[in-house]
Structures are given as C-alpha cells and as structure tokens.
Amino acid sequence: MHKAKQEAVKQWTNDPCGMLAAKGLSVGTSEFYKQIDYNRYQEYAPWMKQAIEFEKFSGKSVLEIGFGMGTDLFSFASAGAKVYGVDLSPQHLEIARSRFALYNLPANLQLADTESLPFEDNTFDVVYSFGVIHHTPDTEKAVGEIYRVLKPGGQAILAVYHKTSVFHLCVIAGYLLHRRFLKESYQDTLSRIEYRENSDAQPLVKLYSRKDFQNLLKQFSQTQIECFHLDKTHFSFLQTLVPDSLIKKWENKYGWYLLAKSWK
Length: 264
What we know:
alpha/beta; Rossmann fold; seven-stranded mixed beta sheet; 7 strands; 18% strand
C-alpha cells in the first residue's frame, strides 16, 4: 500500500472522522450517532443538507467514497436510497456498520480503495465523496474510477479543500509568521489540519482552486462548482473583528470546501 494511504489508515483508524464531537459517549449507541449528526449538520456544516439534497435520491443507487462513520451515507439511506460505501479504515467500517445495524437499514459497506473500486462499469446512479479524494495520492485515477462506475447520465457529488480560501490563507500565514518552514515542510503543516489525538499520522492533504477542480472533472459532460463553509474561526486571531455580514458575503468565494456536481 502507498505510504500516503498507510498514513490515511493510521489517521482515521486512530481518530475516526468526527469522533471528537461525541467524546465521552459510548460508540455504537443511539446517543452517540445523534450527537455526531447534530455536530455535522447543526454545528459544523449547517449548510450541508441543503447543498447535498440527500432526499432527492430516494430509490437511487448511491456509492459513497470514504464513508467515515457513515453519517452522510445514513442520510442518503434514510431518504430511501440504496446505499454502498468504501473506506480504507477498519475502524470507520466497524462504526458505520454498527450504525446501520442499530437502525435496521441495509448498506453494502466494505474496505476498498477509491483508486481501484470493486464494482462493474455503469453501476451507480450517484457517487458521493465529501472531503476524501484530496487525501489519495492519485486523485486523477480516483476520479476516473468514479466516472467508470457511474451509469450514463449519473451524477457525481464531490467536495475537496479549497486552495483560495480564508482558512488556507491563515495556514500559510501561520507557517510563515511562526517560521515553521525552518522545522518542517509545508506539506507537514497541511497534514496537521486534520484532527489528531491518538497518533502521529501525517495524512496527505491536497488543495484545489476552482480551475484545478474543473480540470480534474473535465471528462464529465457537465459540472457545476459551488463554494461553502466559512467560519469566523478561519480568520485566526482576527476572528473577533470579522462581522457576520462579511462571512455571508465571502463564503461563496473564500469558503473551505469546493462542492462539485458533475454528470456523466
């Protein structure tokens, strides 16, 4: 396995994505999953349900690349979609399977690599991946696989980190002002934006401009890209000076996620 993938497994097996939000709760309980949902859709990304439109895909076959603890995939399934998912982390797989079992919803979940999906061509109506493909070394190959397994006319919904974002600008500023360049590479600094408590993992982190992302998705017949997720905390020590009106005005240009909806 490629070193970057090994680091990804290490990262999200030791610190499952979103786990911090439910610290102290027993994993696998309804209270645990309710808190995970509340954090994702109310605290962290209140814009997300409206942007993704989970309920639109009732009756559709949906594959999620990098399902994490199963939060978004469960939202698709709860709205009536037939769901499948792949992830590299055994811990993610265990937690997600427990969730679907608890609520008696079917889901085909497995350990697999987005760069080599274990599915036939033209299988899914929708392929969804939020904040995942920018962690794999060959993102172009991953997108090729997503395109391959989509049915003709099928839709890919993909989110990546935005290079031209306020958050990234502050990461760069901190790297320079605190002279971190004397101790580590910028890639090492980027890897630390992913929450780590129980390991020293260094996951690969890539960022994309709108142009970069559009080019990555050029094989699709149509692509729409929007920008989301700008929070006062992204402004670092200047956050107390930032008015709410500026957050709303800048989010669609300088938010942390680029969200693409592409059609095969």
